[in-house]
């Protein structure tokens, strides 16, 4: 049986691990940019197109820069652009809420309904 890797059929409930393998803030403010990462995780959880990922990554950059950390923001952008690819079976890949493998692609109406039903977090996505 062939499974289309672009569209997985089941979405897991939303989870966020904060800034994944990166600090959530500074020594003085340990959660300074945590909300930026949580919003970014929401976008990555649901996945979507290449352009949506790029917009989410740029929104993360802007969010972290807006809390006064433009250099950290650039470092984070580099990390998510390299490490967030949907082609690796990581827990923080683009579209991590869906079964692996899953490629870039627009969400179907059914998938959007799953996103709505399983969005248990009040976090507002960065890219919307």
From TrEMBL:
Could you give a single Gene Ontology term from the biological process aspect? arachidonate secretion
Write out the GO MF terms. Answer: phospholipase A2 activity
Per its UniProt record, what InterPro entries does this chain match? PLipase_A2_dom_sf (IPR036444)
Q: What is this protein called?
A: Uncharacterized protein
Q: Give the organism the record lists.
A: Shewanella polaris
